[in-house]
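Predict the 3D structure for this chain.
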Amino acid sequence: MANMQPNKTPMPEQDPKVRARNFGEVALGYTEEMARSEAARCLNCKNRPCVAGCPVNVHIPEFIAKVAEGDFAAAYEIIAETNSLPAVCGRVCPQESQCESKCVRGIKGEPVAIGRLERFVADWHMANGGVKTLTPPQNGHKVAVIGAGPAGLT
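Done. Predicted structure below.
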């Protein structure tokens, strides 16, 4: 059933007195129930404006639909088709000015928390399935990578 709440599901945070004494993340991430509730806010638009706002063209409605169903492994597979660093992008990508700014739900209320859901799926995958590395076959050529940005890491 669709969640027609106008606001995003709030993300839990560390208590200020605790976080002042550690280097852990302030935002703690969604639980499975919170992620499914937030995913249920997605309208699964036919013209998919959120995908047009995503620089790497993540299939946003499809992965969010899988989160709403509770199939987090399938959601990760959908994200991984186009994004090699979903845990990083879910945390640092400026979704507010990209995919979320195009979300139809944002016209009357807050947009779907796409970045938070991406972070949840990546974190769930790390906790439950680990990282599958796809190693292409050797071709005898060597490559040098300069820099440690997203392109070099990918």
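The chain is about 45% helix and 0% strand.
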